[in-house]
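Ex. 9. Protein: Phosphatidylinositol-glycan biosynthesis class X protein.
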Amino acid sequence: MAVAGGPRLLAAALAAAWISIASAASLPPEQAGKSQKPINCMPCSRTYIGDAYTCTYTDQLAHHRGLADMTDSGELCNGLTDDVELPTLSELHRQLVGEGSHRRLVYSMKFGACQDAMVNFLDGYDAHLVIIEKLPNGVFADPFELQHFVERKVFLDVAVFGDTNLELPSALSNQSAVEIHFDLRPSTLTNCNLVVDLPLHARYPPLDVSGYATFEFGSPDLFLRYRKKETHSDSCLWVLKNLEAAPAEKAAWRIPCGDEAHIGFVSSITFLSALVCSMSIVLATLIF
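Predicted C-alpha coordinates for Phosphatidylinositol-glycan biosynthesis class X protein:
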Protein backbone atom coordinates (compact mmCIF):
# COMPACT_ATOMS: atom_id res chain seq x y z
CA MET A 1 0.00 0.00 0.00
CA ALA A 2 2.87 2.37 0.81
CA VAL A 3 4.45 1.75 -2.56
CA ALA A 4 1.18 2.25 -4.42
CA GLY A 5 0.38 5.41 -2.47
CA GLY A 6 3.68 7.06 -3.42
CA PRO A 7 2.67 8.07 -6.98
CA ARG A 8 -0.70 9.27 -5.72
CA LEU A 9 0.90 11.50 -3.07
CA LEU A 10 3.33 12.88 -5.65
CA ALA A 11 0.52 13.65 -8.08
CA ALA A 12 -1.47 15.37 -5.33
CA ALA A 13 1.53 17.52 -4.37
CA LEU A 14 2.13 18.55 -7.97
CA ALA A 15 -1.54 19.43 -8.40
CA ALA A 16 -1.51 21.58 -5.25
CA ALA A 17 1.63 23.40 -6.39
CA TRP A 18 0.09 24.06 -9.82
CA ILE A 19 -3.09 25.44 -8.24
CA SER A 20 -1.10 27.79 -5.97
CA ILE A 21 0.96 29.09 -8.91
CA ALA A 22 -2.14 29.64 -11.02
CA SER A 23 -3.86 31.48 -8.16
CA ALA A 24 -0.89 33.82 -7.73
CA ALA A 25 -0.76 34.50 -11.45
CA SER A 26 -4.46 35.38 -11.54
CA LEU A 27 -4.07 38.15 -8.94
CA PRO A 28 -4.10 41.76 -10.16
CA PRO A 29 -0.59 43.22 -10.57
CA GLU A 30 -1.01 45.60 -7.67
CA GLN A 31 -1.96 42.75 -5.33
CA ALA A 32 0.55 40.28 -6.66
CA GLY A 33 3.42 42.72 -6.08
CA LYS A 34 2.12 44.16 -2.85
CA SER A 35 4.29 41.93 -0.69
CA GLN A 36 7.34 42.63 -2.85
CA LYS A 37 7.33 46.40 -2.74
CA PRO A 38 10.88 47.78 -2.51
CA ILE A 39 10.26 49.58 0.79
CA ASN A 40 12.73 50.34 3.58
CA CYS A 41 12.84 52.70 6.54
CA MET A 42 15.32 55.19 7.90
CA PRO A 43 15.32 57.21 11.15
CA CYS A 44 14.36 60.86 10.96
CA SER A 45 17.76 61.74 12.41
CA ARG A 46 19.29 60.88 9.02
CA THR A 47 18.62 63.88 6.83
CA TYR A 48 19.85 62.52 3.52
CA ILE A 49 19.68 59.14 1.88
CA GLY A 50 23.08 59.51 0.26
CA ASP A 51 25.12 60.80 3.22
CA ALA A 52 26.33 57.32 4.16
CA TYR A 53 27.44 56.49 0.64
CA THR A 54 29.77 59.37 -0.21
CA CYS A 55 32.54 56.92 -1.09
CA THR A 56 30.43 55.73 -4.00
CA TYR A 57 30.90 59.06 -5.73
CA THR A 58 34.47 59.98 -4.79
CA ASP A 59 36.15 57.03 -6.50
CA GLN A 60 36.11 57.24 -10.27
CA LEU A 61 36.42 53.45 -10.52
CA ALA A 62 33.67 52.66 -8.03
CA HIS A 63 30.51 51.11 -9.40
CA HIS A 64 27.22 52.66 -8.36
CA ARG A 65 25.19 50.46 -6.05
CA GLY A 66 21.42 50.61 -5.75
CA LEU A 67 20.63 53.05 -2.97
CA ALA A 68 17.46 51.15 -2.12
CA ASP A 69 19.62 48.14 -1.19
CA MET A 70 21.83 50.28 1.04
CA THR A 71 19.15 51.77 3.27
CA ASP A 72 18.30 50.53 6.76
CA SER A 73 16.66 47.17 7.23
CA GLY A 74 13.05 46.82 6.19
CA GLU A 75 12.34 45.31 9.63
CA LEU A 76 12.03 48.88 10.93
CA CYS A 77 8.96 49.28 8.74
CA ASN A 78 6.84 46.69 10.55
CA GLY A 79 3.32 48.07 10.85
CA LEU A 80 4.12 51.29 8.98
CA THR A 81 3.34 50.24 5.43
CA ASP A 82 0.10 48.32 5.91
CA ASP A 83 -2.96 49.38 3.93
CA VAL A 84 -1.32 52.47 2.47
CA GLU A 85 -2.19 53.33 -1.12
CA LEU A 86 1.01 54.91 -2.39
CA PRO A 87 1.32 57.19 -5.42
CA THR A 88 3.02 55.60 -8.41
CA LEU A 89 5.22 57.26 -10.99
CA SER A 90 3.90 56.52 -14.48
CA GLU A 91 6.16 58.75 -16.62
CA LEU A 92 9.61 60.30 -16.31
CA HIS A 93 11.27 62.56 -18.86
CA ARG A 94 14.55 64.41 -18.54
CA GLN A 95 16.39 66.85 -20.79
CA LEU A 96 19.17 69.43 -20.75
CA VAL A 97 17.98 72.97 -21.36
CA GLY A 98 20.07 76.04 -22.11
CA GLU A 99 23.31 76.91 -23.87
CA GLY A 100 26.95 77.32 -22.99
CA SER A 101 28.55 76.12 -19.78
CA HIS A 102 25.53 76.76 -17.55
CA ARG A 103 22.47 74.61 -18.17
CA ARG A 104 19.47 73.11 -16.41
CA LEU A 105 18.53 69.46 -16.13
CA VAL A 106 14.73 69.44 -16.28
CA TYR A 107 12.72 66.52 -14.88
CA SER A 108 9.11 66.09 -16.02
CA MET A 109 7.20 63.54 -13.96
CA LYS A 110 3.65 62.26 -14.02
CA PHE A 111 1.96 60.29 -11.25
CA GLY A 112 -0.58 57.69 -12.33
CA ALA A 113 -4.20 57.81 -11.12
CA CYS A 114 -3.40 60.39 -8.48
CA GLN A 115 -6.39 62.73 -8.54
CA ASP A 116 -8.04 61.22 -5.45
CA ALA A 117 -5.37 58.82 -4.23
CA MET A 118 -2.70 61.52 -3.97
CA VAL A 119 -4.96 63.93 -2.07
CA ASN A 120 -6.03 61.22 0.37
CA PHE A 121 -2.43 60.14 0.86
CA LEU A 122 -1.12 63.67 1.48
CA ASP A 123 -3.92 64.35 3.97
CA GLY A 124 -2.45 61.81 6.36
CA TYR A 125 1.24 61.80 5.47
CA ASP A 126 4.16 64.16 5.08
CA ALA A 127 5.73 63.13 1.79
CA HIS A 128 8.86 64.15 -0.08
CA LEU A 129 10.05 63.28 -3.53
CA VAL A 130 13.79 62.52 -3.39
CA ILE A 131 15.87 62.74 -6.59
CA ILE A 132 19.48 61.54 -6.60
CA GLU A 133 21.32 62.48 -9.78
CA LYS A 134 24.80 61.06 -10.38
CA LEU A 135 26.88 63.60 -12.27
CA PRO A 136 29.69 62.75 -14.70
CA ASN A 137 33.20 64.07 -14.08
CA GLY A 138 32.79 66.99 -16.47
CA VAL A 139 29.71 68.42 -14.74
CA PHE A 140 29.19 69.86 -11.26
CA ALA A 141 26.42 71.39 -9.18
CA ASP A 142 27.15 74.50 -7.14
CA PRO A 143 26.04 73.81 -3.53
CA PHE A 144 25.90 77.55 -2.75
CA GLU A 145 23.58 78.16 -5.70
CA LEU A 146 21.37 75.24 -4.67
CA GLN A 147 21.07 76.62 -1.14
CA HIS A 148 19.46 79.72 -2.62
CA PHE A 149 16.79 77.42 -4.06
CA VAL A 150 16.19 76.09 -0.56
CA GLU A 151 15.97 79.61 0.85
CA ARG A 152 13.41 80.51 -1.82
CA LYS A 153 11.51 77.28 -0.93
CA VAL A 154 11.89 75.86 -4.43
CA PHE A 155 13.49 72.77 -2.82
CA LEU A 156 12.77 71.51 0.64
CA ASP A 157 16.40 70.49 1.05
CA VAL A 158 19.42 69.70 -1.10
CA ALA A 159 22.91 68.25 -0.71
CA VAL A 160 25.93 67.63 -2.94
CA PHE A 161 28.07 64.55 -2.27
CA GLY A 162 31.46 63.66 -3.63
CA ASP A 163 33.79 66.15 -5.28
CA THR A 164 32.59 69.69 -4.49
CA ASN A 165 35.79 71.49 -5.58
CA LEU A 166 34.36 73.81 -8.21
CA GLU A 167 37.76 74.95 -9.50
CA LEU A 168 39.08 71.58 -10.65
CA PRO A 169 39.04 70.67 -14.36
CA SER A 170 37.49 67.42 -15.55
CA ALA A 171 40.82 65.58 -15.66
CA LEU A 172 41.45 66.19 -11.93
CA SER A 173 37.94 65.94 -10.54
CA ASN A 174 35.94 62.97 -9.27
CA GLN A 175 32.28 62.14 -9.62
CA SER A 176 29.63 63.83 -7.52
CA ALA A 177 25.94 63.41 -6.87
CA VAL A 178 23.08 65.76 -6.02
CA GLU A 179 20.23 64.83 -3.69
CA ILE A 180 17.09 66.97 -3.97
CA HIS A 181 14.17 66.85 -1.55
CA PHE A 182 10.94 68.20 -2.99
CA ASP A 183 7.91 68.72 -0.75
CA LEU A 184 4.87 66.95 -2.19
CA ARG A 185 1.67 68.89 -1.63
CA PRO A 186 -1.51 69.19 -3.69
CA SER A 187 -0.47 72.76 -4.53
CA THR A 188 2.85 71.63 -6.04
CA LEU A 189 1.19 69.20 -8.46
CA THR A 190 -0.57 70.28 -11.65
CA ASN A 191 -2.87 67.58 -12.98
CA CYS A 192 -0.62 64.93 -11.42
CA ASN A 193 2.41 66.47 -13.18
CA LEU A 194 5.57 67.78 -11.54
CA VAL A 195 8.51 69.66 -13.06
CA VAL A 196 11.86 70.05 -11.26
CA ASP A 197 14.85 72.09 -12.51
CA LEU A 198 18.42 71.35 -11.46
CA PRO A 199 21.05 73.98 -12.43
CA LEU A 200 24.37 72.49 -13.55
CA HIS A 201 27.74 73.80 -14.72
CA ALA A 202 30.46 72.39 -16.97
CA ARG A 203 34.05 71.88 -15.86
CA TYR A 204 37.00 72.58 -18.15
CA PRO A 205 37.29 69.41 -20.26
CA PRO A 206 40.58 67.82 -21.36
CA LEU A 207 42.02 68.64 -24.79
CA ASP A 208 40.56 66.75 -27.73
CA VAL A 209 41.21 66.89 -31.46
CA SER A 210 37.46 66.90 -32.18
CA GLY A 211 37.02 70.17 -30.31
CA TYR A 212 34.28 68.74 -28.05
CA ALA A 213 34.03 66.50 -25.01
CA THR A 214 30.79 64.55 -24.46
CA PHE A 215 29.52 63.69 -20.98
CA GLU A 216 26.51 61.40 -20.52
CA PHE A 217 24.13 61.20 -17.56
CA GLY A 218 22.91 57.89 -16.20
CA SER A 219 19.40 57.26 -14.92
CA PRO A 220 18.55 59.04 -11.65
CA ASP A 221 17.32 57.36 -8.46
CA LEU A 222 13.84 58.45 -7.37
CA PHE A 223 12.32 57.74 -3.98
CA LEU A 224 9.13 58.56 -2.12
CA ARG A 225 9.87 59.35 1.53
CA TYR A 226 6.87 59.64 3.84
CA ARG A 227 5.70 59.42 7.46
CA LYS A 228 2.45 59.92 9.30
CA LYS A 229 1.78 63.51 10.27
CA GLU A 230 1.15 62.64 13.93
CA THR A 231 4.55 60.91 14.26
CA HIS A 232 6.28 61.59 17.57
CA SER A 233 9.90 62.69 17.51
CA ASP A 234 11.07 59.92 19.89
CA SER A 235 10.03 57.17 17.46
CA CYS A 236 10.19 58.96 14.15
CA LEU A 237 10.86 56.88 11.05
CA TRP A 238 10.75 57.77 7.38
CA VAL A 239 9.34 55.10 5.11
CA LEU A 240 11.35 54.98 1.90
CA LYS A 241 9.90 53.56 -1.32
CA ASN A 242 11.85 53.23 -4.54
CA LEU A 243 9.62 54.65 -7.27
CA GLU A 244 11.30 52.34 -9.80
CA ALA A 245 10.89 54.76 -12.65
CA ALA A 246 11.59 53.55 -16.16
CA PRO A 247 15.06 54.55 -17.39
CA ALA A 248 15.01 58.20 -18.36
CA GLU A 249 16.14 59.38 -21.76
CA LYS A 250 19.89 59.63 -21.97
CA ALA A 251 21.09 63.19 -21.55
CA ALA A 252 24.42 64.10 -23.16
CA TRP A 253 26.31 67.38 -22.82
CA ARG A 254 28.81 68.30 -25.55
CA ILE A 255 31.25 70.78 -24.05
CA PRO A 256 33.73 72.72 -26.26
CA CYS A 257 37.36 72.00 -25.46
CA GLY A 258 40.78 73.02 -26.76
CA ASP A 259 42.62 71.30 -29.60
CA GLU A 260 45.93 69.78 -28.56
CA ALA A 261 47.46 70.78 -31.91
CA HIS A 262 47.11 74.47 -30.94
CA ILE A 263 49.00 74.23 -27.64
CA GLY A 264 52.26 75.65 -28.98
CA PHE A 265 50.65 78.61 -30.73
CA VAL A 266 48.36 79.52 -27.82
CA SER A 267 51.18 79.16 -25.28
CA SER A 268 53.46 81.41 -27.32
CA ILE A 269 50.85 84.13 -27.72
CA THR A 270 50.00 83.95 -24.03
CA PHE A 271 53.63 84.21 -22.99
CA LEU A 272 54.31 87.18 -25.33
CA SER A 273 51.18 88.97 -24.12
CA ALA A 274 52.16 88.50 -20.48
CA LEU A 275 55.73 89.67 -21.21
CA VAL A 276 54.59 92.83 -23.03
CA CYS A 277 52.14 93.71 -20.26
CA SER A 278 54.79 93.19 -17.57
CA MET A 279 57.31 95.38 -19.39
CA SER A 280 54.69 98.07 -19.92
CA ILE A 281 53.96 98.17 -16.20
CA VAL A 282 57.67 98.39 -15.32
CA LEU A 283 58.29 101.20 -17.84
CA ALA A 284 55.24 103.11 -16.65
CA THR A 285 56.50 102.83 -13.07
CA LEU A 286 59.96 104.13 -13.99
CA ILE A 287 58.69 107.04 -16.11
CA PHE A 288 55.91 108.27 -13.87
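Check your answer against this statement. Residues 72 and 206 are 40 Å apart (CA to CA).
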